[in-house]
Model the fold of this input.
Amino acid sequence: MKIHELVRKTPNKKYPMIGRGGKRGKTSGRGGKGQTARAGHKGRPEMRDIIKRMPKLRGRGKNSNVAFRAKPAVVNLVALDAVFSAGDAVTPAILAGKGLVRVRGGQMPSVKILGTGDITKKLSVTGCLASAEAKAKIEKAGGSVK
Done:
């Protein structure tokens, strides 16, 4: 066998020509007439229509139920009575050091003392908000609220 006598086992496949033309004839893959046949056509995305139909929420934005002013951290009298001894000073920094209040973002939170429970020790509270009931109970125990 010589090199010019070599014959392929399977011949090249030839597709029969049909009346509609070749692979990129007529509309050249652009579909029918109308908007899609024009230059620069761009169909409107379906998702945009869905977004347009949704009701708009006016006002302060997506977190509208979040308060403008940060709410104070709450400490009850029961917790103060358990952690502090008689004659101690109570400030937001001391409360954070004892673990009753959490410091968030490197800022000391404002603290409000509520009157849940009773207090038996004399405490000096400064730099904290206090409810009327808590203030009355602290002063009754001999302490002070500034």
